[in-house]
Amino acid sequence: MQHLDHLKNLVIMASADGSLSESEIALLVDRCSEMGLHEAHLGKAVAYALSDHASLRLPTEKSEQIAMLTDLVRIMAADGKLSEVEKRLFALAAAKMGIERKELDDLIDKLVGKPAT
To answer: Which of 45, 60, 90, 92 is the most buried (most CB within 10 A)?
Structure first.
């Protein structure tokens, strides 16, 4: 999966609740830099996410799927609020990638610091 597609997915999730908070923007800027992308790429990702034809492009490789879900959880939590639309979008992405419920629960527990069961 290309980094720009990954970034677009993050912006789609960040804007799913109808707004982009400062903390979401800061996380997007950080991820953009970590992926070796420039601010112009972030601008393209925002424009795409706000367009009528925005849609998630999901990875097919397992490691990329886990990385995508990890970033989606982080962007969902960045503003301190989990909206229903964000939760539904996350659940849909996980289901379309064929991620099992237990694996998803373990990933979320790991991200929030809970010990694995």
So the answer is: 45
What is the spatial distance between Cα 25 and Cα 8, in angstroms, rounded to a whole number?
Answer: 13
Tens digits of residue pLDDT in 82-93: 888 998 999 999
Q: Kindly report, residue by residue over 9-44, the tens digit of the pLDDT.
A: 999 999 998 888 999 999 999 999 999 999 899 999
Query: Which of these, 27, 78, 93, 20, lies nearest to 7 by C-alpha position?
Result: 27
At how many degrees (to 10) do helices 3-15 and 62-77 cross? Answer: 30
* Structural domains of the chain in order of their starting residue, each with its CATH number: 3-112 (1.10.3680.10)
